[in-house]
Amino acid sequence: MADTNPITPVVAEGSDVSIEKSKNADKNEAKRLAKMEKFLAKQKAAAEKSKAAPAAKEDKKAKPEKAAAAAPEPEFVNTTPKGEKKDMSEPMAATYNPKAVEAAWNDWWEKEAFFEPELTAEGKVKEEGLFVIAAPPPNITGSLHTGHALAVSIEDGLARWNRMLGKTVLFNPGTDHAGISAQAVVEKMLWKESKQTRHDIGREDFVKKIWDWKDVYQARINNQVRRLGASYDWTREAFTLSESLSKAVTETFCRFHEEGIIYRATRLVNWCSELNTALSNLEVDNKELTGRTLMNVPGYDAKEKFEFGVLISFAYPVEGSDEKIIVATTRIETMIGDTAVAIHPKDERYKHLHGKFVIHPFSGRRIPIILDDIVVDMAFGTGAVKMTPAHDFNDYEVGKRHNLEFINILNDDGTLNNNCGEFSGMKRFHARVAVLKALKEKGLYVETVDNAMTVPVCSKTGDVIEPLMKPQWWVNCKDMAADALQAAKDGRLTIKPQTSEKDYYRWMENINDWCISRQIWWGHRIPAYFVRIEGEEQDFADGKFWVSGRTEAAARESAEKKFAGKKFTLEQDPDVLDTWFSSGLWPFSIMGWPEKTADLEKFYPTSLLETGWDILFFWVARMVMLGIKLTGQVPFSEVYCHALVRDAQGRKMSKSLGNVIDPIDVIEGISLQALHDKLRSGNLDPREIIKAEQGQKMDFPNGIPECGTDALRFCLGAYSAFGKDINLDIMRVDGYRKFCNKLWNATRFALLKFEDGFLPNKTAAKSGRESLAERWILNKLNVAAVEINDQLGQRNFMKATDAIYKFWLYELCDVYIEIIKPITDGNDQAARRSAQDTLYTCLEAALRMLHPFMPFLTEELYQRLPRRDGDKIPTIVKSPFPVNNPEYIDSQADADFELVFAVVRSGRSLMADYNMTKGAQIYIQGSPETAKLLLSEEAGIVTLTKGCKSCKVVGESEQIPDGCASITVQEGCVVYLLVKGMVDVEAEVQKIEKKLAKVQKAYEDLLKKTQDATYLTKVKPEIREMNDAKLKDYEHEITTLTNGMDTFLKLKD
Length: 1053
Description:
Layout lengths: L24 H28 L11 H6 L28 H5 L2 H7 L18 E5 L11 H19 L3 E5 L1 E2 L3 H16 L3 H4 L1 H25 L10 E2 L3 H17 L2 E11 L4 E3 L4 E6 L3 E3 L10 E3 L1 E8 L6 E6 L10 E4 L13 E3 L6 E6 L12 E4 L5 H10 L25 H14 L3 E6 L2 E6 L7 E10 L2 H12 L4 E3 L1 H12 L4 E2 L1 E2 L9 E6 L12 E3 L3 H11 L5 E5 L3 E2 L1 H5 L2 H4 L8 H6 L2 E7 L3 H16 L4 E7 L2 E2 L16 H6 L3 H9 L5 H14 L9 H11 L6 E2 L2 H24 L18 H22 L3 H23 L1 H4 L4 H22 L4 H10 L26 H23 L6 E7 L1 H8 L2 H7 L3 E7 L9 E7 L2 E6 L6 H26 L4 H4 L2 H29 L4
Parallel strand pairs: 1-2, 3-4, 12-14, 19-27, 26-27, 28-29, 30-31
Antiparallel strand pairs: 5-6, 5-18, 7-17, 8-9, 10-11, 10-16, 12-15, 13-14, 18-20, 21-25, 22-23, 22-24, 30-33, 32-33
Helix pairs in contact: 1-23, 1-25, 5-22, 12-13, 12-18, 20-21, 22-23, 22-25, 23-25, 24-25, 24-27, 24-29, 25-27, 25-31, 27-28, 32-34
């Protein structure tokens, strides 16, 4: 070549052709995730495009074989007998079908006892270690939702991973009786079916109905978790109301009562009038109001609405004078039970009222004016605060400090009791209206103003919660909390993420005693008995007249000792224990405690507790307290708190919103109409059903596509990052289904490339004859194995799934499988065999790496692969998980192949610059060392550069033809693309000019708007910020188009 290349080298804007690796891991992570999202978006767009395309095209007539291949496959029918291994002799289907893939495997796994803990011949834990998860027991109140699916995906992924690492693994399943929730659901069902209440049919028959409900829904839940692939040891399935677990509950109550840890006292509780029971804080939703709001309340006419979100001021007359003192309240009806007015001792306005009284306007009671510098803020309101200690948690503490009278104004059903004079017998919110009216009539009403406030609402019934004085059983938690806190401080217990650990510390340092009485029928009946002594007047609330017993006979014996010589009868407390009391014993009660069983000795304490952060205090903290107290050991060494699953818009899942997703519906797919039908089969109010259907139409206009279990599990893992809630987009799950299809096709390709009778090498050791691409992919396999093990150990499921996704998609499928196609189709037998062996090694190991996330697909594909000589492992469940293999580490191959791929990227970039999609001719000019390396990779470069016709490596620039564009890859390596005569310059320039004019106009129009004199004052800041970003995008696009046009114009020279 007589002269140098006349065209200035073109470097595509934004492209990075340097082979130097990024030192910023976070940026790399972001790039990988962006690539993943881009892939999913492309898949989605392609799917939509294919739907929109005509059913037939003329050119398809010439290719009947493709039309035949596109014909839908017949509906899959599972013919495998239950518990038998699936027949793998049939050829692989053309495409991935999750229904077919997932069939039969779980039944076979269970029958073969693959999920039961594997012990040594002596019955001991294996030397590789022990991993135990006591699966959090779901409530038997209905179906599982995607939050449960997330928990199962994480827990089972860790169980399968540890099992594959060779450890003795126990993943123990079970369900919770869910006292209040289950009773509320069955009561609704009973009323809906027969218009009866539980009182109409009696305790025994009602409890029997809940047992029947439990059998149905426990079976449904167990089917769901089996469909999700949970590798539970079903031989150890537990239920919190079973005989053995009930024994543990009784033992704990009696032991604590005997030690004085459990005691009886009358205190304020969260009371639900609709359920007639006390509630834990977890069963109370806090409804935030910004001001005056009219609300419906259960138990009242649907047309009635009551006023909330206001502050009502009224006056108390001061005794012996014409003076009045003004107070305010958000619950005006509670003033009937007021027993004090508090003022600040330093408030000069009220100095003259120290020691005085006000007169209650309805009862005439003398109410003391008390001095309190804790509760009263002189600067707030009038500086005077009404006190209702029997109906307000803050006032309760004031009442105890000042020894005030505690006047209860409510019956259990929410009506006003006999302490309320003219208002007695009224429903509480009717009384709210009546009291306000009466105050106005007496001239004591002052004003009503809007007031932002929180209204506590029962999560089961929607009823407004009332603080109510009730005699209950309580647990003194102070000492147990101190021990539980110390376990976290000294490292015996770790809690992830750190935000959850801080919550744990805060709760344990400020713990209150725990109310464990519930006024319902479904649950563990409290093993406490009131000793009714003949001829004596007794207070049912007084703990001194109560005894406990593991049996009634034991309680009688205790009573005879305590009340020697007296005649008495025993009356068992009709209440049941808080569900969290039995759940708090879960990690050791399922092992047989209080008996000293072999399971308790081998498998307790457990390894990990995985749960949602929202029950960290209600459940996790109580398990730690009870575990240390009763067994002397922390029940688990690690707590992992997963995120909350929200909908795609970030809203909390709610039946009334219609966004609660049954994981089976994601696995199997469901139409929009079927989603509507499911709403109507439940207990939702008809008004809520209408709202929920609207929500379903918005979220799932076309229903939910069939995604399969493996895609759902992988997606939930990919979403899981520390401290972040999950906004679940079903289309992203569908994207991972397409990823499953990619794996299916990759394995199918491999099996096609393994000729009949192919037997892989006896081991996965390198032969020493591997090509550069083989050495590179084995190195990448090892990098992925190391990364996945490390991230699973850190419980970073997002990065673990990203590592396996990256290896499968971007390295194995997109690069290695593509680059070996000409080799496996070629005549070089040695090269073909080597490529096959490496493909087998990578494919088999990659399936094992993927198994914790995608159990069904990986088993199906694993069973289809030929096996190495001597490999007798029956299932991927028991196969070894890939770990670091020093033999595969090859940094030189990694660097050399990165140069090859940099050349490929440069060739693709040049082709994109010149809109060249086929027939490309690439030349590479490099230093002698570089040329030697790339000369052997010419065929691979052509394969990986789509649309490339040929690639030639030269040593001198004179060998490059005229009319080439170029990119410098690195010093001593330049890639050239022959463009002269290959593109229609005029047509390309016209395209760019047309697009440039359109963008230029959009830019000028927006710029004109921003230059308007009123722009800064009339346009919101967030809109201005958005417009600024748009202008920058337009400027960037104009620059890019201008540069592109210049590139083409140079070809005219």
